[in-house]
Here is the input.
Amino acid sequence: MRKDEELSQQLKVMMGKAKDSLEVAKQLHKQNHYNDAASKAYYAVFHSLQAALLTKGLSFSKHSAVMSAFNKEFIYGGVFAKNFYDKIVRLFHDRQIGDYEYEKYINHESSEADVGDAEAIICAIGEYLQKEGYLDV
Here is the structure.
């Protein structure tokens, strides 16, 4: 397997994980598990951000580093809409609430926004990866 084929295969796996997490987030939202839906929506986006960064040869373990590098490489670079970063930051914040807070919680509207934004971001990254020839159409 050539290196570019290996990268394409890795990206396919990563985007598959992102889409699986998004489907779980949708199910959790429908079942009124808003905290968990927000968390899963964030992780769905996190996997897709990592896939996009891998096309630039970048990989990070810290969430803040992934978000910062994506902002620098793809938002400032004009590849994705500027409001994507704001949505990513909100998804991260809601995930923090959903996973770690005891006195705050994610409500129906926030969960719905998180799932919707996650879907839009993942679709846009998937389209980018296809357009750049990393994934099959």
About this structure: Residues 3-131 form a domain with the Four Helix Bundle (Hemerythrin (Met), subunit A) fold (CATH 1.20.120.330). The chain has a mean pLDDT of 95. The radius of gyration is 15 Å.
